[in-house]
Amino acid sequence: MFGLNPGDTLLLLADTERGIALVNPAEHAQLMDKLLGGPPPDGGEEQ
Predict the structure, then answer these.
(1) What does pTM read for this prediction?
(2) How far apart are alpha carbons 43 and 10 in whole angstroms?
(3) DSSP label at 13?
(4) What does each C-alpha distance from 41 to 19, 27, 35, 38, 44 come to in angstroms?
């Protein structure tokens, strides 16, 4: 129905006035990198 499969990663957005949205974070990766600071420069995990 929503194109979701077991193991998919989702971003849940919620607002008391506008409701709930399930978003595929891959479709908004550039925006998420700007908002959250992006992955570490070496591509590894942060220490």
Answers:
(1) 0.48
(2) 21
(3) E
(4) 35, 21, 16, 9, 8
